Amino acid sequence: MPELFGKHLSKPAIYNMNISMDNDIIFYGLTIFLFLLISAFFSAAETALTAVSRARIYQLVMDGNKRAQIVSRLRKEKEAMIGTVLLGNNAVNIAASAIATTLSIRLFGNENGLVLVTLVMTLLVVIFSEVLPKTYAIQNAERVSLAFAPALSLLVKLFQPITYSIQFLIRIILRIFGVDITKSNTLISATDVIRGTIELHHREGKMIKQDRDMLGSILDLNDIEVENIMVHRTEVETLDADLSAEELVKMAVSTMHSRIPLWRGEPDNIIGLLHVKNLIKIMREQKGALTTEAILAICTKPWFIPETTSLRDQLLAFRNKRQHFAFVVDEYGAWQGVVTLEDIIEEIVGDIDDEHDEIENDIQKVDDNTYIISGSVTLRDLNRHLSWNLPDDNASTIAGLLIYEAQEIPEVGESHELYGFDCIVVEKSAMQITRVKMKKRPETRLHSDIEL
User: What is the mean pLDDT of residues 88-97?
Assistant: First the structure.
């Protein structure tokens, strides 16, 4: 019997060994599941904290949300946060793989076990620890970041000595290869980031073109000068201050403008600005018995501004001075045109027409590739309305750009290649180009055609 006992295990012994094996499988399986769950936590937390809107978190912080404050702090300490995530994620993934390898070898042997555990653990880690949690986190970045932030913040503090040591070692290794990560190489301004975000939302269909243009124009206010949007002096209605009171009233009332510049001696010599509302008021007070001197007395002093004034500065100046009208002069003090508060507002929101404005079709579409355009249309308006990308560095209108590129004043019927367009002069008035035809060449790839 002793010899037989040495060669054959008793049934209770086999039964106990099977129970022990089952217990090991359950224990190892639960441990692997726990590690994969922790790995999923790190993956989801990293993705959510990276993808969450900074503006939204800032607003929650202003509202007193405690978890949002933790999220904001983690985003500021990005190196420590990323280091903790990578350390924790890799540690649990390696531990799970090691346990799975041990269990697989015990069940299936060395060769079969290694192959099997590699395949199974790869699938489990990729699906349940990477793709699934990151996909959910990127779709619910705010919810996940607020939920996981307290736990991750605690882990960042616990792992701080290790992560700082690793970061120090990394900096030393990078410096050996001539890389200094402490120097900032960021060349993109906050304005460019906002502009890119607006354009991206428009491309994705989350923002209509009108809103895109409006927000973009607000960002451009500091870069655009009043000379780019002013009404040129040749298009401004003015009155001679030496006219009789009767003639001044007749011409002022017949105009479609509420403010009219007055000049004396020569049109360049602006002496005042007549407000039609004030004129009507004084006519009522004096019951129509007006003199030229009385009219000139109610005129306001002209306000002259440099043509290089930015729209942002001029908008603030209009508000501070409580005025809506200014005369634009060049570096020699010569009057160039006028700019109004409405001009700046239209630069932001687009054209504003009232019941007295004459509707002019300055941009007429002939077909998808051809347009008839008024020569006075600004390049900014043209680019905004048609999503073109014509440069406005050397000219402010389409006629000005044509003259600049041609280095002459083209005659009617002349055609010039203009940034991928055939630009043909359709109509002229004296030396002024009043209407052109723009036809896109087949090889032209417009800004609006570019896919992101």
Answer: 88
